[in-house]
UniProtKB/TrEMBL annotation, chain A:
Residues 308-319 have a biased composition (Basic and acidic residues). This is Recombinase RecT. One of its GO terms (molecular function) is DNA binding. It comes from Ammoniphilus oxalaticus. It comes from the Bacteria.
TrEMBL record, chain B:
This is MBL fold metallo-hydrolase. It comes from Ammoniphilus oxalaticus. It catalyses: 3',5'-cyclic UMP + H2O = UMP + H(+); 3',5'-cyclic CMP + H2O = CMP + H(+). Counteracts the endogenous Pycsar antiviral defense system. Phosphodiesterase that enables metal-dependent hydrolysis of host cyclic nucleotide Pycsar defense signals such as cCMP and cUMP. InterPro entries: Metallo-B-lactamas (IPR001279), RibonucZ/Hydroxyglut_hydro (IPR036866), WalJ/YycJ-like (IPR052533). Residues 12-169 form the Metallo-beta-lactamase domain. Keywords: Hydrolase. It comes from the Bacteria. GO terms for molecular function: hydrolase activity. Pfam families: Lactamase_B_2.
Amino acid sequence: MSNKNEVANKDTSLQATQSERFLASVQQQFAAEAGAPVAFTDYEKTLAQHLFLKVDNVLKDLETKRSNDKQSSYTWNNVNMRKLALDAVHRVKLGLDALIPNHIHPVPYFNKREGKYDLDLRVGYVGEAYYRAQVAVDPPIDIVYELVYSNDHFKPIKKSFSNEVESYEFDVKNPFDRGEIIGGFGYLAFEDPKKNKLVIVTEDDFQKSRSAAQSKTFWDGHPAEMRYKTLVHRVTEHLEVDPKKVNAASYAYVEGQEKDSAVMREINENANQEIIDAEYEEVDELPFDKDQDPIEAPTSESDDQEISFDKTGTDEPTW
Amino acid sequence: MIEIKALASGSAGNCYHITDGETSLLLEAGIRYKDIQKALDFKTSDIAACLISHEHKDHSKAIKEVTAAGIDCYMSAGTAEAIGHDHHRIHRVSTQERIKIGTWDIIPFDVQHDVSEPYGFLLLNKSGAKVLFATDTYYIRYRFTGLTHIMVEANYSMDILNENIVSGRVHRAMKRRLMQSHFSLENVKEFLKANDLSKVEQIWLLHLSDTNSDEELFKREIQGLTGKMVIVP
């Protein structure tokens, strides 16, 4: 008869096997998709295993919470491995570690076309700051991020003829009553201090990010955290990417894909939903607004007006 | 009997003429008015109205001349504001608000493009024709019943676009702009699959990209999927 320790050991060894299979599957899928095999270092293999553990936990968690029987179960069999393999390779190549908080958030959404769950491996703000620093032309030696409250003292010291190093003054005057958040700043420090850069983010900038967010739940529930994340994004955007770096291709893939995936998700969730079921109506009856008269088209006779050739409309890029 | 004539289709200009034999309409006015006149053998006096989907010049270039010719133009308030041509022939309409123009009932509906307030149009005719016109949209929120004619944008194929990015012909930044403004062949297919096509007589594929499309491929794929007559003007 097995005791608890033996059961735990079996679980661990089973998970280890699954993890190895995941790694093999990722390498195999990537080779098929990208047309070239991928070789992981031992460290990258560890990162891939961490990613497996994270995804496995997320799937199990979602499966426990799944209430709709008609919905596909959250199991590995129902995951689009083709997409996951490509995404996983690029995230591993960037050195992202799924077991570090805010490096990678696996978010599944059902892809009707594939009939499986696409797992978006969204890169968290900590992960983004990490890999951007890795692939930068000039990697920073330190990055400071601070939210500024109304009772704090903050003064930017910009670069000028009399000041070679961009800098700032920042002082929390009353740590127990800092007031409202009024903005934030980031400070990128380099070996050559003349390159140091101060990035200021205003409350208006935060509000723009809030408006762009698909869901306002996080912004309303965690206003300071969401501002901090936005600040990190805005500051690390200033790091120029070196295309010659070995993982720059993965950087480009991940950066592009984060945004492409958001569009694909939007289409997947919103396209071809509501039905417009309308027929020609003989009488002037308004199905949508009964209180308003229908617009009658006037007869098309010439108005005899002077034709002007002023510019109208706006130009669209040629595709 | 519905007759559709494409006067121009693509990023250089868009304009279509549609008639049910009784009432003629222009869909878009994105070319010079004299080219519209020429294409219609100068028979423009019977045009009852012009529907404008959005303010980009390849859809609205001739608006001043069209209104000056006494043709009523229908568009969203956002489009009218963006065009900025104040004229009594400009009519602002709301999404899903029915308009009656001669023998047509027209229902505008919101589409997805990176402009003020873009619309597609559902045209219902008293003899039972149901024409869908939707261009410059990266997806359509709605499904429709009993369509007889579908005029829909098929701007690019994702596969061709990706190949062009790899070869350096198209910059990667263009991809996102395209994905969030124009209909891909792949998404058009999903749209067609989601709709009842049993009464469809013709499918018009509009606004093909010069760089990221392949007319023959698009036609073959949509014909293969639907079994319907496909026209690429």
